[in-house]
Amino acid sequence: MESKVKLLGHPAHQIVVAFPMGLLATAALFDAVYVARGDAMWSGVAFFMIGAGVVGGVIAAIFGLIDYIAIPSGTRAKRVARFHGLTSLTVIILFAVSWQLRAAPSLVPPPIALLFSFSGAALLGLAGWLGGELLNRMGVGVDDGAHLDARNSLSGPASPTSRDVSHGSHASNT
Q1: Are 21 and 124 within 8 A, CB to CB?
Q2: Which of 20, 103, 98, 26 has the alpha carbon at shortest distance from 57?
């Protein structure tokens, strides 16, 4: 099932989701470093990363929702996508609460803020795995004409007859 929103020929959700995932996972890692070392600088860095990660997560969710709506009802992909979306939304909420509880980057975060951060990171792993299931196992977001010798994404859609089905051709269209 091909993605409904693309950036430079690639699914927008798959592109933008990398930013919040990286920011939020690293924020939780920096929170762990803060807990281990007691240096508030690490929680200050996490404060800014969480803010950026939550904003990026909301943007990624918009593109994900557009693709979710296009998944046919009654399919396993629709059920997994619903769980993926709800898990991802929970991640954003947990980190947003953690960010609000911190009040400022220069303050030492209360333990509850760290609990929200670590809980969000744990669920982030599940949300990412579910996204991988949708993409790699169910083909959600994959171009309809995808194959090993497909033209590059900036070339536009390939015609059904342009696919070389001979096994000897390894020509590249970059």
Answers
A1: yes
A2: 20
Over residues 11-54, the pLDDT tens digits come to 889 999 999 999 999 999 999 999 999 998 999 999 999 999 99
Name the residue ranges covered by the structural domains of the chain: 7-144
Which two three-digit tokens encode residue 96? 């947003």
How far apart CA 138 and CA 80 sit, in angstroms, is 10
Whether the pTM exceeds 0.90: the reply is no
- Closest by alpha carbon to 120, among 101, 139, 146, 144? 101
Closest CA to 82 of 26, 28, 138, 120: 138
Q: Pick from 40, 162, 153: which is nearest to 104 by CA?
A: 40
Considering only CA atoms, which of 89, 93, 110, 91 is closest in space to residue 101?
110
| E strands present in the chain | 6-7, 10-11
Q: Which two tokens stand for residue 110?
A: 């209360």
